[in-house]
Each structure stands twice: as structure tokens, then as C-alpha cells.
Amino acid sequence: MPRTMDRDARKAQLAQAVWQVVLDQGVSAVSVRTVAERAGVAVGSLRHVFPTRSELVRFSAELMMQRVTERLLATAARDEPYEYALAIIENVLPLDPDRRAEYEVNLALLAERAAVPGLQQVSIDAQRQLAELCARLVEILTDRPHAPLLARRLHALIDGLAFHLFHQPVDSDTTWALDIIQAELTTIAGKTNNDVTSH
User: Fold this and answer.
1) Buried b (16+ CB within 10 A) or exposed e, 8-43
2) Structural domains in the chain, sorted by start
3) Keywords in UniProt for this one (predicted)?
């Protein structure tokens, strides 16, 4: 068990080094050498864990998705479904520097999907998970288990807002995005603005 844990910790360390290289130099700079240098390990040590760049990039993307999922699952429950849905979506959108960096790394790594075997599936899985999340949020807001159009619209809105937030200058106002999400959640839940607590 300790050896497995050590290997898992080393893999996570290397993935984090990939993320930092992406943020500092761009995804094209990700190589066994640059990542080993950033992680402070020998190239041979890295190759022992990830024999190829493709395996390193794929794992880095998978771990990023896993951490996003874990963060969403850790979102505290709320008595009010609207408040819970809003908290979940706030955790998805790049509203602060950490989530903005996360989004940037995701975009960069998944852009490699044509060249990295298996990365296309990581991208498909990420979109499927977000679609399922939107369906679940719609269900708790409406008590309707089958509202595919509402769920798809919410999914598209989250994707679009994330893209716009990422491309606006750092430290720009983000309240407009939350206003849009709040309006959409209000519409889905069939509430009036007076029924929703202002934020």
C-alpha cells in the first residue's frame, strides 16, 4: 500500500508540474524534460512513471477532471435547491484566479486531443459529466426528472459563460455572469425575482 500511495503521489506531483508548465509557457512547452525540471525530478524518474509525453498529458487532464468532480461533490448541501444549484455552478465557472487557471489548463490540455490517444475520451467524459450535472440541477429545481431542453440550455449557458469569463481581463467584474445564472435558475425553478434572495 505505501508503495502504491507513493506512486500515486508522484503521479499527482508530475501532473501539477504539467499544469504549471502550461500556465507559464503554454501546452507546446510540455515535454518530459520540461516537466521533470519543473517537478525537480530526473528525466529517467519521470519516464519510469510516464514512459511517453502522451501518457503524461492524458493523466494530467484526467486528474484535473477528477479534482473538479471532487470539489463539486464537496459542495455543502443547502436547504433551498436554488441556493445549492447556484453554489454548484459558481464552483464550475472560472470566477476566481484558481478556477481561471484550472479552466486555462483544461482548455490547453484538451486541445491536444487530436494528438494524444485517449484524450478525446477524456473530453467526451467531461462534457457528459457536465450534462449530467445540469440535468440533476434542473431536476432538483423543478422536481421534473425529464426536462432535457432545460438541462441542455443550462449546459450551453455554463459553457458559454465560462468561455467569456476566461477571455475577459483578469480581475474584471464577474457579477454579470452570476446575474445571468441567477436569472436562468429563477426561470428554471419558475420563481419570480422577489422569491430569490439577492446576492
Assistant:
1) eebbeebbbbbbbbbeeeebeebebebbbebbebee
2) 54-189 (1.10.357.10)
3) DNA-binding, Repressor, Transcription, Transcription regulation
